[in-house]
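Quick one, T. Sequence first:
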Amino acid sequence: MLLLGIDEGTTGVKAALFDERLRPVREARREKTNSHPRPGWVEQDGEEVLAAVVEAVAELLRDAPQEVVACGLDHQGESVLAWDAQTGAPLSPIVVWQDKRSQEVLDRLADHEDEIRELSGLPFDPYFSAAKLVWLLEHEEPVQRAREAGTLRMGTVDSFLCDRLGAGFATDASTASRTQLHALGRPGFDARLGELFGVPLDVLPEVRDTVGELGVLRHESWPVELRLCGQVVDQQAALAGAGCVVPGRVKATYGTGVFVLGHTGEEVPHPAGGLLPTVAWRIGGRTEYAVDGGVFAAGAMLEWMCRELGVAERPAALAELARAVDDSAGARVLPALAGVGAPWWRPD
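Structure tokens:
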């Protein structure tokens, strides 16, 4: 008996098989392309991301030594796109969580900032999904045409993947809480937040539990269908994976960014100290919460130093350079390539 995990991350897709004791058996990885068409913009191609998931999973299923009985999907959180309900074709690029183009939307909504913060629990920052969705509605003609035709779907990357792979047009409660269209302590997307932002809720996915019988993933290149039993934001997946399933336990995950999450239990946490209140997961209709502090550039900063400054050929070589000196001679670096996250929340 094997379990399959799919990690749709910012820079790549990784699929991994585990045995019944959760010991790793095998993994496959596919890289993704991040494009930067303008300063502050970060995009991905939806079809490329879907293909990366399909290929990584196909590689594992071809040689799986035992039956794969269930799978789970985690994803990069706040990144969004639009697609056609009839064809499944993307109508926009994926606007990645690091992207800052939607600051113009937030500037227009400044008079409603306090109400949006109060309802969503989230700071007024282009990091979150709602303003990105508004930008797509206002600037992408294919999105506008699909809206007029009644064939528009919009959502985070997990909902796109589930829709295209047969598990339904749906997301989970942890993801909804990252959109700024979800009112903490209430189910689903919030009508008032949708009204304030100008996002029609009828184009958004169903919000369901994080764990359960969530549908079946299938593709013509896969030898078997996969029971989807978990769907969650990557950082909340890491919270559970690190064993932080009771209040007071905290994890830090280092990747493209650094994200520190602490489990707070079943009470809705109040924003404090620049930390984000967020849904950790919803299981059997019962919601548990966490607080989140994010640094937006960690591994991304190392890659930038190699690519743009030519400091080293690859990020791993930076450690060798660091060991070659006793100190930094007073130099400091603020990793603000995508703005500054917790606790300051400065997108500029």
